[in-house]
Specification:
By secondary structure, this protein is of the alpha+beta class. About 30% of the residues lie in helices and about 40% in strands. The chain binds coenzyme A.
Amino acid sequence: MNIRPMRATDIPQVAALEAAITPTPWSPGLFAEELTLGSHCRILAGKSGEVLGYCVARLLVDEWHLLTLGIAPACRRQGWARRLVQDLLQQATRTESVAILLEVRASNVPARTLYQDMGFTFLYTRKGYYRLASGTEDAILFALPLAKRP
Ligand SMILES: CC(C)(COP(=O)(O)OP(=O)(O)OC[C@H]1O[C@@H](n2cnc3c(N)ncnc32)[C@H](O)[C@@H]1OP(=O)(O)O)[C@@H](O)C(=O)NCCC(=O)NCCS
């Protein structure tokens, strides 16, 4: 398996994976828009080229926003999400940026643990941010300050 830039031809598989693993999935069009904008779009590809994970982040002024990240269930707990975030971190330190920001559902313990384990710290709670079939859920905002400031 390897991490490589996302291509337009990957989008159907990326969107299908996201739809299978998150309650608030992006449409294929949203992934396509990020590619067009030149955002940081990476995938985890399997031996046959199949999409097993993805990470999308966008630089807004001097902050990177980690927009979406996911790993196929069969490939979890092998360090791939950590590698995708480290890959973003490398990209971020090459730009004039001060932090990586992200939001996560309050009940998403695997993701919260991943980010806290990687040094992200709690910023604040955005009440009722996510609209789910079962109601709403709070978003927890995390930030990772970047050591190398402009
Ligand atoms: C969250 C997610 C991306 C983690 O992917 P992963 O490849 O399994 O994560 P990693 O193997 O890189 O784990 C890195 C660390 O995260 C934490 N972690 C990951 N999964 C965890 C779990 N189920 N429970 C507790 N901690 C967990 C651990 O600290 C782990 O380190 P360790 O394995 O040495 O203990 C994955 O569970 C997923 O795709 N979930 C659905 C989509 C999602 O929630 N995306 C995040 C949106 S903000």
